[in-house]
Amino acid sequence: MLVHDTVDTGRSQAETDQIRSALRARYDELTAEYEQAVLQSQVLRLVEVGDTAGDDQADSGTKTAERDTAQSLLRTILDRRAQFEHALTRLEEGTYGYCEGCSGPIPVERLEIFPSATSCVSCKQNRERRAA
């Protein structure tokens, strides 16, 4: 359960521990995913360096696209991992589950689907509208 029902943060210690465990597990999964992606990227670079003889434009373009895709994947994983790290920090501070925009509670359903959410649906929609 991700809602608050006691004084301070409104969470029992058991709930906080359960949330921390789930966030930490996902953070650790993303760390392992990142390390695997880094290894794959290094292998791709080694193959690319050793296999450039006779490359035409199409081969070079394919290799560039593969390299860009690998770098994009690394950035995405790092971004997601940073979100979970931020969620863990907010949990320790007692602000997890509250919107960073309006300070209102983030619906439990949203946190269950997106545990690293930092804003309620309304604030998220407003921010996306302004960015568009």
TrEMBL record:
Residues 94-129 form the Zinc finger DksA/TraR C4-type domain. Keywords: Metal-binding, Zinc, Zinc-finger. Pfam families: zf-dskA_traR. GO terms for molecular function: zinc ion binding. The keyword Ribonucleoprotein does not apply. SUPFAM superfamilies: DnaK suppressor protein DksA, alpha-hairpin domain (SSF109635), Glucocorticoid receptor-like (DNA-binding domain) (SSF57716). A zinc finger (dksA C4-type) spans 99-123. The keyword Zinc-finger applies. This is TraR/DksA family transcriptional regulator.
